[in-house]
Recover the amino acids of this structure.
């Protein structure tokens, strides 16, 4: 199984730790992982801002980098959802389509493809899980409170394999954190308020760490935690699953 | 309320200046969303009901002309006069003419978002006709001189103390009296007088049955019935999308509507109107006002399935924290943000961007409208039609170019990290909206790409 590692631009630049943990975790599980060095961005910032027509360059690059892999795995639900739903190239539509079917978000790749049953990890802290909207509602990584359907959580089932980790309950299980890509600056007031409320729910329940399958939401919440001088930290789920 | 030229972000910014009020607004609406969750989870067939409703409406949208003609013929056979209005102006003129024919200058109205959309009250006021809104919430915002901030809960943005002040000013209640029971009884007494003296009553329509020419009006206060039953003339105004094919379909929609709207199993009053009683006149005004244009837009057609339950507003984390008035349109929230640009792209170009695309709206929608996907699609349309601000357009072009080239991307990334590290004042300042309430991420010494090149070759 040849897996291409897709590291979103902001993770590459600001959160290399999350990317390293993803790589090491996959390697630990015996996966043949390669990181194509010429990758940049999936194009989502433009597309969600209404400029999908400007994403041709990103799309071509993505196809160049990721054609030929059995799977493409990324520690970001949001970017994976964008590729799944919007990767196009008029000249290489078949390749684009194939890639959009082969791209996986990390936690669902672990539970659904590798069918991981146990992990050698330990993380002795109280942890709150932030369900990213694109991961949860877009990629169905966990059940949604709005729907009348059985309850499940792929990130939750993986965290349950981590020794000494205590998962906390939240008042609002799957409320959006307010990051929303360019929304976080275009609608600064509402975005920051949503982030503050999201963080407060975790703090109220004693979270020492906030984790999730999307670094972008975590980056937003980290900005708020730091501004508040909080001791609570954010960590990408890969970093917890990879911890010893 | 005159919102002038301010867009959603600015209006939401103003609303957010009072954080306690935002908390209160958010918690009030969340409480309703939680009530909705509780009651829908009691129905194992909930998702099947949604699917059924969606399919019924899909059928209606595909055969709108047939059902409209069927409805018109059946209503006429019932002795109802049917009027057609192409737009808001025609709608208002028809209603005005019907009132004028009675030689009266007063009318009582039950809640109708269509008349809000058409600005009927303002129009009639300029023609010397006084309208009293009889839904309690609607009456409160009317006394305040504001539009409703929510389609089901028109005055959800007002605290009981503020309502007490309004009643003191307009209805003569003692000052500083904010007891809900007392205020409701005062409104009831004042409205009773109105019901008894109005010759003309206007109601909205929740569902119109093509097969029988009947229509159903849902209220929790019985105010639509009180108006319509006492008046000589009953005018019912409906958007053409309110049709359902058969009476047997009502069961699906009546079960979905109020569970989604307020978490109740049924509305207190689901009133069925079929024909005028002896000596009464009954009129139905069928209003298009942009609906056939929306029907023609394939990507946005599904928005016409909306049954106006307001569930998308209650669940929307942005709506809850920005208030209904920040949407500066009659129908606020996620559904309003896909309906409004159809009416006026320039005026409402900001609304599809007033969302994080979290998708909760699509999940609560009882007729399964793909609301957040339509918001995404509207963004693409609005940008292509030239409604993006110039600054944003340039920024996006630069971004697209940079991200399409690995060399430029690596250089820009490195520069960004160095800036944050060695010149944090360049980004951590007031000009950066991120920095206002959030710290910047710290800059690692190397990117993952750089680490990988050193460690995995």
């Amino acid at each position: 199984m040849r897996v291409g590692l897709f590291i979103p631009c902001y993770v590459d630049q600001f959160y290399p730790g999350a990317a390293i943990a993803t790589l090491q975790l996959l390697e630990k599980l015996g996966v043949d992982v390669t990181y194509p060095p010429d990758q940049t961005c999936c194009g989502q910032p433009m597309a969600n801002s209404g400029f999908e027509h400007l994403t041709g360059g990103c799309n071509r690059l993505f196809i160049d980098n990721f054609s030929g892999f059995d799977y493409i795995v990324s520690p970001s639900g949001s970017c994976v959802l964008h590729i799944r739903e919007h990767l196009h190239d008029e000249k290489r539509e078949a390749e684009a389509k194939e890639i959009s079917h082969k791209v996986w978000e990390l936690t669902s790749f672990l539970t659904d493809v590798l069918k991981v049953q146990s992990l050698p990890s330990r993380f002795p802290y109280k942890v709150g899980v932030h369900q990213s909207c694109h991961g949860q509602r877009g990629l169905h990584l966990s059940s949604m409170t709005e729907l009348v359907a059985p309850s499940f959580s792929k990130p939750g089932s993986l965290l349950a394999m981590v020794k000494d980790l205590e998962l906390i309950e939240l008042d609002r299980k799957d409320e959006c954190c307010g990051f929303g890509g360019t929304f976080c600056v275009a609608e600064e007031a509402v975005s920051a308020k949503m982030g503050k409320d999201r963080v407060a729910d975790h703090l109220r329940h004693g979270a020492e760490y906030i984790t999730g399958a999307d670094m972008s939401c975590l980056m937003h919440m980290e900005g708020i935690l730091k501004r508040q001088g909080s001791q609570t930290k954010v960590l990408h789920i890969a970093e917890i699953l990879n911890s010893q | 309320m005159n919102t002038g030229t301010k867009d959603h972000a600015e209006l939401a910014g103003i609303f957010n200046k009072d954080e306690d009020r935002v908390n209160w607004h958010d918690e009030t609406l969340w409480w309703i969303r939680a009530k909705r969750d509780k009651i829908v989870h009691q129905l194992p067939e909930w998702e099947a009901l949604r699917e059924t409703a969606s399919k019924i409406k899909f059928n209606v949208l595909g055969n709108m002309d047939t059902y409209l003609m069927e409805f018109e013929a059946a209503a006429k056979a019932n002795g109802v006069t049917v009027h057609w209005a192409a737009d808001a102006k025609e709608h208002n003129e028809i209603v005005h003419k019907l009132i004028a024919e009675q030689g009266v200058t007063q009318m009582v109205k039950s809640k109708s978002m269509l008349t809000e959309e058409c600005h009927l009250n303002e129009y009639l006021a300029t023609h010397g006709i006084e309208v009293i809104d009889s839904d309690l919430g609607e009456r409160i915002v009317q006394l305040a001189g504001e539009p409703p901030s929510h389609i089901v809960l028109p005055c959800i943005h007002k605290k009981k103390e503020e309502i007490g002040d309004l009643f003191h000013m307009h209805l003569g209640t003692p000052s500083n009296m904010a007891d809900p029971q007392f205020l409701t009884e005062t409104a009831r007494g004042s409205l009773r007088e109105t019901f008894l003296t109005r010759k003309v009553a206007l109601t909205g329509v929740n569902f119109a049955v093509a097969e029988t020419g009947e229509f159903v009006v849902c209220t929790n206060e019985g105010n639509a019935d009180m108006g319509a039953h006492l008046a000589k003339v009953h005018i019912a105004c409906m958007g053409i999308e309110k049709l359902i094919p058969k009476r047997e379909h009502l069961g699906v929609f009546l079960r979905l509507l109020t569970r989604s709207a307020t978490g109740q199993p049924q509305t207190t009053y689901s009133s069925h109107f079929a024909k005028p009683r002896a000596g009464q006149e009954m009129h139905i005004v069928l209003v298009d006002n942009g609906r056939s244009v929306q029907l023609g837009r394939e990507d946005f057609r599904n928005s016409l399935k909306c049954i106006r339950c307001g569930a998308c507003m209650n669940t929307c984390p942005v709506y809850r924290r920005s208030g209904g008035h920040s949407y500066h349109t009659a129908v606020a929230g996620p559904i309003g943000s896909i309906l409004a640009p159809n009416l006026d792209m320039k005026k409402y170009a900001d609304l599809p961007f007033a969302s994080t695309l979290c998708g909760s709206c699509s999940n609560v929608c009882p007729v399964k409208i793909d609301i957040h996907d339509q918001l995404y699609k509207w963004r693409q349309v609005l940008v292509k039609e030239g409604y993006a601000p110039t600054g944003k357009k340039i920024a996006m072009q630069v971004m697209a170019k940079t991200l399409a080239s690995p060399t430029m991307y690596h250089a820009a990334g490195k520069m960004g990290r160095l800036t944050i590290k060695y010149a944090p004042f360049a980004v951590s300042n007031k000009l950066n909206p991120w920095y206002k309430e959030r710290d910047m991420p710290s800059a690692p010494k190397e990117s993952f790409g750089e680490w990988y090149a050193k460690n995995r070759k």
